[in-house]
Amino acid sequence: MLHEIAGNHVYSTSGQFMVILLVGLLESGVGSKQEVLARIRSNRWFDLRPEDLQSYLAQNGGEEPRWENRIAWARAHLARFDYLCAPNIHDHWQLNMGGRDLATRVKAEFWKQAFQVRYCYLFSPEFKKHLDPQWQHSDKDIPRPANMYRDWRTIEALAVKPQLDLFQ
Question: What range defines the domain where residue 81 resides?
Fold first, then answer.
């Protein structure tokens, strides 16, 4: 069974950003960074909160909201693992055949409930329903960690540890 996406556990914060991006690219095809982000935003797939809108200094020297920066890093990880077409072309976001296969498998794992959307605290209720039509909000849903951006590395380790038992 698939447990990792580009070296990140599917339930980790980084893994969740990658799932959102993978499914977004699978369903929309190709686009620029801003087009892909606009689709994710308009589909309401990311559980957007005020902390996500705070600015990070982007690599180009400009500022962008934190969530957009993390989606861009998700793209960089996917490119490093060779899941994108023309990863070196500026502002070209598209899955290659391997990336489409990965996205299809990830989506199928959620659909079959082999992956549980309740462990994905970055997914909006709309995205959880999109991946698992049987999902209903409950007290078993993992809440988003406080200070997620500040405590990134600690949360990565802690968020994944309890779910690893599911795969034993």
Answer: 4-167
